[in-house]
Amino acid sequence: MIRVLVADDEPLVRAGLTALLAAEPDIEVVATVADGVEAVEQARSLAPEVACLDIRMPRLDGIAATRALAGPGASPRVAVLVLTTFDSDDHLFGALEAGASGFLLKDAEPEQIVAAVRAVAAGHGTIADGLTQRVIGELVGRRRTQPVTAARAAQLLTPRETEILLLLAEGLSNEEIARTLVLEVSTVKSHLARMMPKLGVSSRLQAVVWAYQSGVVTVADRPPQDGPASKG
User: Fold this and answer.
1) Which residues contact 14 (CB under 8 A, 6 or more apart)?
2) Response regulatory domain location, by residue (predicted)?
3) Which end is more exposed in the chain, N or C (fewer Cβ atoms within 10 Å of the end residue's Cβ)?
4) What is the pTM of this model?
């Protein structure tokens, strides 16, 4: 069962999202709150797997709440899916840099939202269609925000973990990485499980964000395709 917290300052949106998720047999909405302070307090108390956060909320906005729940030093760390009406670069990149594992616009289809919650809970991450190329370009431009350098990355990761990270940044699934490296899928998953704590991230998407910000991967390294880390 995926335990979810819903945070939105609009009562109708909050009620609609709660009803949508609660109707799924594998999802339980454990709390609904109206502002970012409540979101952080309830998440720390109830430890849901996923927090669905709006960007614009009173007292504490969604980006600050994301940083508190999913950023460095957060304990317990909660995977965050940001749902917003604002298709803004600053909101998107701010959420990802704060530690969000997913970003969707509220006008996404209901099945997309449900699928995104499941993906984030599984550590895969998701970004709304059409936003991926903007993310990659911006991450390269914002590399100065990430204090870890490519040289430091080489110290943190084993050669095999680096190989997997590079393939992850190409958008390959666990199964595709396993075929490429001639490994068992379970071995790939084990490497990912060991790698993410080293990078201070909690999802595949955040691992890709880290890779671009640290300079381990550059745009030139990446084949021309859409959707990094969107597969499981």
Assistant:
1) 6, 7, 8, 32, 34
2) 3-121
3) N
4) 0.72
